[in-house]
Amino acid sequence: MRNAPLGFFDSGVGGLTVVNAVQQLLPAEDIVYLGDTARVPYGSKSPETIRQFAHEDTRFLLDREVKMVIVACNTATAHALPSLQERYQVPVIGVIEPGVDAVLADPAAQRVGIIATRGTIRSHAYQHALALRRTGLIIHATPAPLLVPLIEENWLDHPATRAVLHTYLDPMLDRGIDTLMLACTHYPLLIPVLRDFLPEGVRIVDSATTCAELVRSELTKLDLLSDTTGKGSLQLHLTDLSDQFEDLARRFLAHSPGRIQRVVL
Q: Which one from 26, 50, 68, 73 is the annotated catalytic residue?
């Protein structure tokens, strides 16, 4: 199984930021990615529907004989990860726990701001995970639904984006947050803007980088790291294909995605 591919799924192409981070850490790994772009976004769906979609996505990846499934979607992780881990024999990991671990790795973290989709904030997954593991932690969680369309429009350093960030983040900054969690896989593209936007000393934790580090750790622990040399392959599957999704895939990966296949679940 060492040389079997890693399987990733997301409701769209935002999870490609996780793929990009994994490719930086583990360049020899082959990757199969499924973006359920025909049914994006998951964040506005009911928990039952999200779990149904997540199981369909996982079965698609297992049919391609992946050695691990990475739920590269915060909303799907929040609502479906336990049921996926219970049902399937391959390791299944999500993006929430590694982000929580990264926040709590700093003993000085006391006031944490979280921005995410409505579905992720509504699930309370991050809030519960943080509060259970560090008593006295002050958590400010805010849904930030306007950021995804702005990112997909490539308005990363646009005045409108900065105005929206002020609206979402100023109340958190007024409360003295020392850590900002980017709990959506789209948001790492905003990190350069956020570094200029946030006061010095506010730490940024993003779900893509932290998830990639967990993937490496789990593969090492399970003796599943690829023993091949050279650059791993990327198979990119989307349930709806458009020029917009191809352009987004290129930007989220920071390189050409190659051939993209349309699939039906």
A: 73
Which of the following is catalytic: 18, 116, 180, 184? 184
Residue 9: what residue type?
F
User: Is pTM beyond 0.90 here?
Assistant: yes
pLDDT tens digits for 135-151?
999 999 999 999 999 99
Q: In which residue are the tokens 């932290």 written?
A: 210
Active site residue 184: yes
Q: Which CATH architecture has domain 97-207?
A: 3-Layer(aba) Sandwich (3.40)
- Dist. CA 97–CA 129, nearest whole Å: 8
Rounded Cα gap, residues 223 and 209, in angstroms: 21
96, 77 contact by CB (below 8 A): yes
Give CA–CA dist 64/72, Å, rounded: 17
**What is the domain class of 6-94+209-262 according to CATH?**
alpha beta
Domain 6-94+209-262 and domain 97-207 have a common topology: yes
Q: Number of helices and strands (H, E) in the chain?
A: 11, 10
Residue 68 corresponds to which tokens in the numbers above?
A: 């691990």
